[in-house]
From TrEMBL:
Annotated source species: Henosepilachna vigintioctopunctata
This protein's name: RING-type domain-containing protein
Biological processes, Gene Ontology terms: protein ubiquitination
Domain of life where this protein originates: Eukaryota
InterPro entries per record: Znf_RING, Znf_RING/FYVE/PHD
Chain ranges passing through the membrane: 6-24
Coiled-coil regions listed: none
Keywords: Membrane, Metal-binding, Transmembrane, Transmembrane helix, Zinc, Zinc-finger
Domain called RING-type: residue spans: 78-118
Amino acid sequence: MDVRTIAVVAVAIGTAAYAIYEFFNQSRNREQQYQYRYHRRNSPNETYYYNRRDSPTETSTPFNRQRKKKAERKEDNCSICFESLLEGVIIATVCEHQFHYKCLSGWLQENENCPICRKTIVLDS
């Protein structure tokens, strides 16, 4: 095989891999959007996790700050209203920042990103 053929094959494989990645990424985003809308309508008083890897388990509850670097950060207050996170409904974003449900809902009406790290939070298509 000559260099040109190898280059074409490499570009084709790379393009296919990127297309597959984007397909699964979009599928995950659609699922998160659906879960968020469903939760907002049906269970406004429960904790909602945007990322299914952060779903509640024995080792990852909204108040377990030992997970990953939470012990170092010690997020005791909502960064939007500055009130204690121990009161009210807690929401954990994909970037693992935590907020009160009402605070983040209001924030996301005006913005599309996390109030702390500015990572995009996609809710509606």
